[in-house]
Hints:
The protein contains four helices and no strands. The chain is mainly α. It is globular, with a radius of gyration of 15 Å.
Amino acid sequence: MDPRFITRTIHAYLDYPVAFGLMIAPFILQLGSSSPLAIWLSVATGAAALVLTLLTDHHLGVWRVIPYSLHVSVDFVVGLTFLAAPIALGFTGLDAWYYWINGAAVLTVVSLHKPDSTSVPA
Length: 122
């Protein structure tokens, strides 16, 4: 049995709240104690995620110019970047944990992505 269950539709519904969450959560959690970059990396990534989602070829995309498979690949890179950010940028405490947890969550979603006929097989 294939454990991958996150379809293109499910992924599309996750994209918008995740993008807005990345822009809002750093302020709610008061990130930035180890570096102001801990706030702005998340906000910038959230803004980029929103643009990516608006441009992705799925049913919630507004201007469907980016292939869904490329969107999933970008998500994978973001997950890896978030895992590496605390080490590379010197984040500590809550700042570090925020990125490690988000990175792990993104990579989990990507790994549970169920390929369909219009995406590249994993």
